[in-house]
Amino acid sequence: MFLSLSLLAHKALYIRDHGTITVEENQNMGSLGNRLSYPPFICQYSKISMKLVDSEENAKECELPLIDLRGLFGEDKKEKMKCRKKIVDAASKWGFFQVLNHGISHELLCKMREEQVKIFELPFERKADGKLLNGSYRWGAPSATSVEQFSWSEAFHISLQKVPQNNCYGEELQSL
Asked: Whole-model pTM above 0.70?
């Protein structure tokens, strides 16, 4: 099994406490200035016939798997296999997971978070033009065919295997 390591900066879209975006809010987001720089979800998803339902009744809350990577670095072969199995299970079921004891310093994570916020606050048009971060910007679920498949999020996926020597990530990210 090949496991590729990548950095995924992700921003879920929460406008209100309940995490819903109405059609009216989405259409008006462009007029709110750079404060809100969300993708045009409603325009994309309106291609699919949607039955509007009360989001509170249908919302599911799920805990993402949390995996302690300490088991991978120890000498105990059973612990290594147990940790690997957790990774495979989480990746198969969820597609992603959270990790503990990964070895990345708190300081570096804070710096990365600061840069992530700067990038996500950019206007949608700038993020979507394909030149920013080598075209790694993603939003929504373009192949969605039903309401259950919608993804109300935006993300930058940066494969660490494809980071060029002279990258376009800017001085701030290069220094991290």
From this structure: no
